[in-house]
Amino acid sequence: MAIDGEYVPSTAQWVRDQVDEYEGSGGTAGTTLRDTGMAVVIVTNRGAKTGAVRKTPLMRVEHEGDYLAVGSKGGAPENPLWVYNLRKDPHVVLQDGPQTWEMTAREITGEERAAWWERAVAAYPPYADYQRKTDRLIPLFVLERTTP
Ligand code: F42
Asked: Whole-structure pTM over 0.85, yes or no?
């Protein structure tokens, strides 16, 4: 089922704008990171404290139908807050262009994490710089379909 309730937009204007353009165009515009041409997906998730509907653009890292959510936040010392949302309620909806799927987020570690980290850096090389910038281990979640 969809994640319904009150949508409370990001406190970051550029993020709010990207979500508005992406969703407002049915996933045909606003689907890249500024002018980099690098693909972005939107992950709708449930606020861990407020229960609000949150919409989080993330770089598109996909492999055999699964996606990766990378809690990089530009290499900031603290995790992005959506990490705590996914840890509390792993049910998310992912939009990739015009397509959306119900997904379940699963935080990964060890060898599985290493394999996905390679895919993430291949898709978006700045992730490697972000990890060098901070001594927190950037959290990774695999998003797996719950609906075909
Ligand atoms: N961020 C990444 O971490 N990785 C990416 O790959 C990435 C790509 C990307 C591409 C395009 C784009 O426009 C943005 C992109 N971002 C990427 C930024 C991303 O969308 C987030 O803005 C960023 O990661 C910060 O996430 P955040 O969840 O900390 O967002 C802040 C700005 C925010 O919206 N805060 C709100 C607020 O009111 O402070 C709500 C946060 C929230 O979800 N609160 C929870 C609640 O209950 O509602 C409580 C959480 C808790 O337990 O404390």
From this structure: yes
